[in-house]
Every structure is written in C-alpha cells, then in structure tokens.
DNA sequence: TATGAATGAGGCTTCATTCAT
DNA sequence: AATGAATGAAGCCTCATTCAT
C-alpha cells in the first residue's frame, strides 16, 4: 500500500509489503499494513487507551473479532507501530554515529534527520513519545534504552567539541543535550505537513538556533 | 514545609488548606490534600489510566469506596491536580507579561520561572503535559487555550525583539517559540530534585543557550 | 393545622407527638416526626429507591449519619410511614364493617371514607400503593393481607346485595370489587388539594357513578 | 418465537423480529427478544431496581457482561419494553379516536380494547404503570404526555355525550374520566390469564358498570 | 476471511450503615 | 444531638480476547 490514507493521516506512506509469490500479491500483508496504519492514526487522534478494538474494526469495515485475524493483541499492535518508527530511528542514528564527521557536524546531521523523521511520521512519532507507557515493562525498557543511547552519544559529541574549544565552556553539556532533545522531539506536537515550513526548513532553523547557541563566538 | 511526603513524591508541598475554624486545623482538607498528592504521584508513576481507584485507596489505607469521601470522580481528581499547576502557571505568566521589561528580558524571566516551576512540581507538571487527554473535552480546551496564550505571547516578544534588531533576522520566530517551549517543558522528563544542578541553574543554562542563539552577535 | 410543612407537602399534618413529661416537651419525638414527614415527601416526589439518606439529611439540615439518630434503617423509615397510613385504613374499615348498615350503605361509606383518606394523605397513600415492593417480604405480606381483607369484605357486601336483588344480577361481583378499588385507589395519582373539587365531593361522585352502575334500575 | 415462554411470563408473544436475510432466520433478533421478555418478567416480579443485570444474565444462561451484547443499558432495556406497550397503546387509541362512532361508543371501545390489551400484556403493562419513574426525565415526559392525551380524549367524549343529554348532568366528567382510567388500568394488578374470566369478559363488565353508571336512565 | 456470540476480569461509582468522638 | 470518617457490599458497564462456524 503505497499510499492514499484517509485524509487525516499525516504520516508518510510505508513501503509496499513484500510479496510472497511474484504473481499473487500477498493481500493479507497489505491488509495488515492497513490495520497498522488505521490503528496508528486512531491512537494518535484519541490515545491508545481511549481507542477500542471495536472502533478500529469499524474504521476498517470489520467486526471486533475479525481484527484479531491480523493482530495478536492490542498491545502488540501498538508495539509494532512504535517499533517501525523505532527501527528507522536506529538506522539513521547508527549511520550518523559511524560517520567520521566532526562532532558538531554529527549533531547538526542528527537534529536535521530526526526533525525530518518526526515530521514525516507524525502519528508514529507521536505514539512513540506519548503512548510508550502502555507497553509491557520489557518493551518500555527497550525503548528507553535506545533513547538513552542517543542521548549518551549527543552528550559525548558536545563534550568532545567543548573539550576541543568549539563549544562554550560555560554551558553544561548534559543540559544542552536535554534541551536539544526536548526541542527536536516536540515537533510532533505542532508540526503540520501543510504548514508554512517544510520539515527540512524546520530542521535547519533548529540547527541555527542550537549551534549558534552552543558555539564559541 | 509542614508535610512529609512519601519518598517518591518529588513535588513541593502545597500550602496548607484553609481552615474552617481558626483554632482547630481542618483535618478533612489536610487529608484531601493527601489524597491529591498520593494520586498525583501514582498517576505520575503509572499513568492515569493505569492507576485504579482501588490502588489509590490502598496506598492511603482506605477502601476504594472511601476515596470518594474526598473526591467526586477520578477525572475530577486528575483535573484538580492539573488545575493547581495550571493556576500557578497563569499567575506567574500574567505577572511577567504585565511587566514593562524589554521583550527578551520577559523571555528570560519566563524561561527561568517556568523551568523552576516545572522542576519544583514534577509530578503535577508531568500530568499536565501527559495526561490532559484523559480530561473532558471542555477541560482540555481550557488547558490548550492557556498554553496557546503563552505561546502567542512568547512569539510576540520574539517578533518584537527581532523587529527592533535584537534578534537575528534569519530565524523564524514561530519555530523559535516552539523550540523554547519544547526545551523548557521537557524538564519534567529528566529533572531530578537530587540531581547535580538545581532548577535555577538549569533555567539559567536554558537562557544562555537560547538567548545567545537568538541574539544578533 | 398545627404543623408547618414545607409547601410541597400535601398530606394532612399528623397530630403532635406525645409528650413524655408535661413540662418538657419531647423534642426528640417531634424531630422524629419531622424526619418521617420529610422522608415521606421525598419518597413521594422521587421514589424510595431514588431518595438517598444523604438527601433526606440535607433536607433536614443534618448529615447522613445523623439521620440514624432518629431512624434505624431506611426501610424502617418507609415502613413506618406506610404503617401509619395502613393503621388509619384499618381503623375506619373496622368501624364500617362492624356497623349494621345495609351492605350498599357500607360500600358507600367505604368509598367515601377511603377517597377522603387517600386525598388527605396524598404522599403516604402514594407510598402505600407504589413503594410497598421495597419493604421486606414479611411486611409486604402484612399489607397485602390487609388489602385482601378489604376486598373480601366489599366482595361479600356486593354479593349479599346482589342476592337480595339490590344489585344487578348480570354483573360479576368480583370484577365490580376490583373496579371499585381501582377507581378509589387511583386518587393519589391525580388528586390535588387545591383542585376544583374537595375529597368529599370526589367521594360522592364515585358513589354516584358506581352505585348507580351497580343498582338494579 | 411463537411461544412457550417460561411459565411465569403472562404476556402474549411478540411477533417475530424482522429478518436480515430472508432465508436464514435472524437469530440475534430472536435472542434479543428473549432478553427483553426475560427482563420484562423479572422486572414485573421483583421490580426494576431490585433486578440486577447479573440476575438477568443468569436467567438467560449468560454472564452479566454478555447481556450487553444485546442491550445498551439497563434503562434502555426497560424503555424498550415499555415502549412496545406504549406503541401498541397509541395504535389502537388513534384508530378509535379517528372513527366516527358516537362518543359513548368510542368510550366503550376504548375500555374494552385497553382492558384486553392490559390483560394480554400483563408484565409490560405493569411496568408501564409502575416503573416509569426509573426512566430518564425525557422518557417520562413522553409517556406522561401520551397518557394525558388519552385522558383528554375520554374527557371530551364524556363531555360531548353529556352536552347531548346522553350522560347524567349531575356527574363531573373529569372525575368520571379518572375513575374509568383507574378502573381499567388497575387490571394489571389482579388479572390472571388462567382466571375465571377472559380479558374480553372483564372489558364487558367494565363497560356495563361504567356506562350504566354514566347514562341517563 | 470474517462473523457472532460469549467470556471474564475488572473498573468506577453509589450508598446504607456504623461508630468513636 | 450530631459529626466525620470509613466500611463493604453491590451495581452497572466496558472491553480485550477467544473460538466455533
């Protein structure tokens, strides 16, 4: 399903599902993706707890029970939605971290990419930040750990740049790190795909603001 | 600082409730405040939906039914908790806005105060930002409206300072506003009262970072 | 008119409570009577189940718990109200039955008296007819038995009069009996003390209608 | 479901519900009707307030939660039961009123039909008269308004007949109206389907009694 | 593939009642 | 004579989930 979500869905379309046999497209997987997308949108709009399986079914033209043909539990549904987002996050983060750009360049790249990613996956990113509490403790831990990894890295970059004299010595790297994530991750709350600025432009603004705040004049 | 809260409660104690008869402290109101505080902490720890009235009662040494001697509904309980925070917010915001300091001074003052406020009322601020969805539509509207008011004001301050040449012309005031609120309001997620830095110090860091990012060099 | 009822109370005032000692009026009994009257009115207006002890207390300027200083249970309260009415009913019924008037005269007397009684004790009679189900099985039985006794008597009177040729032979005495009670006992539903006709006039109308319907022309 | 309800149910069977697909009888609707009938009987026997959803479920071989597969709330359940009765009432009333029979003929027809209707729908009529207080204010209003309409019509008929000299001038039409409804509507309290007389016979008795009471000799 | 019927656990809330003060 | 705090039982209702068809 390359596309055409119901009007309210601000997320970018997921890539089409894999096909089992070339001749016969796997309809099940396609429908499954549809279930995920619909649920994601509804969770985004009303919250996870407030969305019932009955409602999800209705939105899909299915009865409550039929939804379980595609999912194994409501929590799994949420997890899968969040996991997709999470996975993407990991991907670009690993790439950036592995690069040999100077630390502030990495930071710039992370801010830009993460802002764009958040903005292009509004509903999923929103769920990632607001509904993780409804996941099982173990799954929460996975997510928290990954976030911590990102924070550690950013902290390390800033610390490194500071040691190298590129970042103001009078700033606390840890607080700066929190500030950056607070700023970037807030995008899901107010970004509108049809707004005045694109995700890229917003990323650039963030970089300007933060980096010129950090940098030694 | 009359009251010893259970260890987990990071919020500053509320001032004692009004007394009905001057000589004899109003026990009821005190207990009621205890209920609010306990519930606030539990909502903070597990989330509003995940906290049952049975659990709240148990934590207070009451049966679930008995909790209703002090509250009228679970949602009202949440609202009251959030409203206290909300009210305080309004108070200092109005004071700052009414002052005749230059716009960037107002901004500095707001960032500092709001950061401190968030940090000193960790659980309540947390609920304010994460559980407002569990409130009735009307109550949600109240909160959203107030937040919008703050954002409008900050936007106006930045715009004004920019027009006066005090803020870089290449930055978008609106994005800057969002960035500031994202930063400041993220404090409830990571601030720890027993941490290395005080709320005031964090506020100062934020100001440094943001203002030197905004200001024309 | 010894007692000042709240405006809505259509029942005739109960006689003042007995005094324990001539010099010191028994305040408790008086207050108790007030509780009965207030409860009776509220049960009448909202129904027994729908009236809470909290509300009864509030109406009396008391707290929930304090009401129990005067009553032993909510059901007892209802029973006592209904019992007063019941007792009166028994009194005049016994008097009529014991008289040596001819059967149709007794019938006339019963219709008149019962209509008047119903009308003068609107709330209590209403409860007698509508809320008896909330009483304990045993108490229900008492009431049902008494009503049956009245019906038996009326049936006997009509049968006797019919045997004597005073009542039409083509009418079924049992149905006539039911009809009469249905008619008379419906008064609590529509009688208004400030209406066009007095209770006595209504009683007379009933007699006219029924007796001329029954009597051989 | 043409029949054979559990022994205690004195109401006539409802006509079968509409079918969704012509070939396959709609089981759901049938079961739903069963729920209504069972609940009606239980409300009749113990009263609405005294009947719990748990009990209704048990009687149907269901858990309390499962009952809600067929109903939306306990009050809705009551309303639907009462509404069916109400609807029937309206139907025959409109027919009679629209006829061009002379007023006393209409009266006779109404008494007969209403008595029969009450008797053939004992439980529902009973609920109609005794449990309407448990309905929402708006629903109460609907019912009260309809009853008032019937009373107005009967009052008009009697008044008309009286003006034409067919009814005794010394009787008050309004009281006569109340008397008639009191009489007819009391049937649910004592009618037994297996009794000595049929509903039709009882209706005839009522007519005899009332009309010969009303008519000028 | 999807339905329909039911489960079962649990949630929020209400309320008559008690009892020490 | 009345209060305030709490109890405890029960009530209505919701919902994720299952499973035979």
UniProtKB/TrEMBL annotation, chains A, B, C, D:
InterPro entries: Homeodomain-like_sf, HTH-type_TetR-like_transc_reg, HTH_TetR, KstR2_TetR_C, Tet_transcr_reg_TetR-rel_C_sf. Residues 52-71 bind DNA. It comes from the Bacteria. Pfam families: TetR_C_24 (PF17932), TetR_N (PF00440). Residues 29-89 form the HTH tetR-type domain. Keywords: DNA-binding, Repressor, Transcription, Transcription regulation. The keyword Transcription regulation applies. Residues 1-31 are annotated as: Disordered. Gene3D superfamilies: Homeodomain-like, Tetracycline Repressor, domain 2. This is TetR/AcrR family transcriptional regulator. It comes from Actinomycetospora chlora.
């Amino acid at each position: 399903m390359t596309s055409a979500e119901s009007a309210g869905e601000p997320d970018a379309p997921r890539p089409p599902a894999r096909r089992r046999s070339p001749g016969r497209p796997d309809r099940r997987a396609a429908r499954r993706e549809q279930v995920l997308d619909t649920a994601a949108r509804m969770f985004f709009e009303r919250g996870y707890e407030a969305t019932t399986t009955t409602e999800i079914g209705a939105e899909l033209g299915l009865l409550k029970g039929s939804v379980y043909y595609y999912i194994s539990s409501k929590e799994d549904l949420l997890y899968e939605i969040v996991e997709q987002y999470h996975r993407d996050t990991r991907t670009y983060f690993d790439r950036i971290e592995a690069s040999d750009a100077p630390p502030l360049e990495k930071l710039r790249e992370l801010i830009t990419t993460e802002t764009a990613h958040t903005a292009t996956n509004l509903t999923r990113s929103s769920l990632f930040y607001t509904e993780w509490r409804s996941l099982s403790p173990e799954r929460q831990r996975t997510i928290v750990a990954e976030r911590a990894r990102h924070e550690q890295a950013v902290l390390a970059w800033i610390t490194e740049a500071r040691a190298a004299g590129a970042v103001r010595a009078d700033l606390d790297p840890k607080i700066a790190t929190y500030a950056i994530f607070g700023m970037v991750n807030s995008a899901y709350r107010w970004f509108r795909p049809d707004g005045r600025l694109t995700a890229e432009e917003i990323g650039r603004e963030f970089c300007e603001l933060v980096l010129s705040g950090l940098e030694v004049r």
